[in-house]
Sequence to fold (784 residues):
Amino acid sequence: MLEPIRYKTTDNVDFIIIGSGAAGGVLAKELSASGFRVVVLEQGPYLTEADFTHNEVEVLKRNQLTNRPDIQPTTFRKTPMDKAKRQRALVYGRMVGGSSVHFTANYWRFHEIDFIERSKVGPVPGANLADWPITYADLEPYYTKVEWEIGVSGLAGASPFDPPRSKPYPMPPLPVKSGGVIFERAARKLGWHPFPAPMAILSQPRPGRNACVQCGFCESFGCEVGAKSSTLATVIRMAEKTGLCEIRPNCYVHRIETNANGRVIGVAYFDKKRVSHLQLARAVVVCANGAETPRLLLLSTSTQFPNGLANSSGLVGKYLMLNSGPSAMAVFEHPLNDYKGVAVSRILHDFYELDPQKVGFCGGGGLDARFDMTPINFATGGYDMGGLPPGTPKWGKEFKAALAHNYTRSLEIVSHGTSLPVESNSFSLDPDLKDAWGLPALRMTYKDHPDDLKLGAFLRARILELLDATEAVQKWASPVEEQDFAYHLLGTCRMGIDPKSSVINADHRTHDVKNLFLCDGSSLVTSGRGQPTLTISALAYRAADRITELARKGEI
Amino acid sequence: MNESVSRRRFLSRGAAGLSAVWASAHWPALLAAATHAHQAAKSAAPPKFEFFTADEAKEVDAITSRIIPTDDTPGAHEAGVVYFIDRGLSTFSVDDQKTYRQGLPELQARVAEMFPGTSKFSALKPEQQDEVLRSFDESDVAQKASKPAQRNLRRRPGAQNFFETIRQHTIAGFLIDPDYGGNRDAAGWKVIGREREHMFQPPFGYYDKGYPGWEVAVKEATKEAEKK
Fold:
């Protein structure tokens, strides 16, 4: 194998890619495979399979793979009128491979409706719902490309609600679990259409990668056998093999530099020792996620760009969408042992597209049967509720008895739904709080649109209806609440045709700066129904094609 | 000893559960994963204390033993939770040292306040120990209502914080993967019914055992729908 290339900061490389997750990893591979010289700057470490463990304390409590609240504090407020308070507001992957390393690996395509919902349902008061400048048909070849190139397990044609696809999945679904069987039977009883969950986890081995060994540590953990199709396990390796792509970890980018002509000339970053460097490049692609991408643009002010780079619209950081959806737990007579295997084995999309006239709100969603709680999370609660019924004592004999009985017998049903784009929901720079590098901290402003809460209540009722059709001996649902914590970071530099109402065009080029491109969750115009990662990677493959064509025509 | 056993165990069980083709095709990765587990096991808790004095360890062990008591199955004591906490406080949980140093004496002060003449938690009877811990449990509303006398106890915020911290540490030490310094002999996993394996194969549980497969399930469902 070729020794990975190392560039000097003074080398004027073709592209800098900031971030190496679901989008950055794909762009690194595609652009370097097209012959361009690429430097990927990643703020986190370069870990590999041998570094991944099942150590809940290291991973969950000490944020081994994710952003660090101790050195990267954040603040939260509900509305622009409130003063933001310091609290942990979001989680994202902070390592080579980004969030694609620790995510649960649910891998839904968006449906046609997600791209044209505004035209179909009309304006929604309190939201700025817009059509995408591209359609599902434009993105379909890239969905297929992702599924085949990184390896996705699933069963084409199993859901009557699936959008058209040009090719089946490259490998069969992963084994069904007890929770999946319970879910499938109950849903069928109700006349719904459950189907095997498409997952970015290998059900069959691929060169250099194992098939899933069903260890059960998917969500929040890195896969130590390479079965989870993260960009780390897939495209980043391909990028390095081109001999043209350098993955440079532990680089905290703090500024994109521009010249008097309004063109980007390079990127300033702090290395591990917090020494600042300037890497030169002919063009920059920001793939830092829906929180850090707008933050970086807002940090990169200059006399020419006083409100932040590429922010003539004033929309950088706005229209944040998190996806939403309550969940429920149920306990059964016999052990399910759903701690084994991947988190989700059955889902349904019967409520993906709802008629606003009938239900009284705009939006839709899906349900899945899952068990994604590690033993400690089950007993203490992670970010959400733990796995024990409300009112269970938190220690002592009864606590132990509940734990002993419920751990193997529990199932969670989770809903995933729309968040509508609301202008005041945003990431911005906190005026007071700084991170460990002295840079303004991320401030999240978020209040769910009333329709999102109505959708939550609707999905919660469907979950309970489904559980009523099972033989659950006990069940309880989480309340429908306004959110104050983000897993999905979407919509904050939205794509569009009009430079006044969007930040990037359909080529992912910023309207304001010719050689600056953005591609990640921030590009999304709508939130889909809850599983955005496949769409982010598909957009990245498409963006790479667009950028390559522009570069070859000398138009960058 | 311990390490080599767990490494062998991992390899043999892993390979036995899978087809020979799979195992040979993926041997390097399997080996890498096993070596990794082996290294982690090496750093398991040593049977001596690094942070606690012997006296403190005795008290902490007594507290953890009420948070997850021993009954007909093992509890925090059998899982060696006190060793996990001790090691944590000198490694990954250094920030919590102060909570223990301040909280433990405060908790003992409450012991003396509630049971005059006793100054050590470990010297109390289990029911009395529970009473002390309950006085710190803010979620235990019913208990507070039924024991109005306890409301007159002196506020001890350090011990309050300590109780919540040690509760979480006890659960972590009882349920963490035994490779990472707690949950001795996988005692905690035995209690909750989690098998100590790195690889599983279907059927996983009771309800997927008789599953006929997707195709058959679809056919059955279609027939069912036609009947209606």
Summary: The domain at 1-152+229-319+491-556 of chain A is CATH 3.50.50.60 (FAD/NAD(P)-binding domain). The mean pLDDT of chain A is 96. The radius of gyration of chain A is 22 Å.
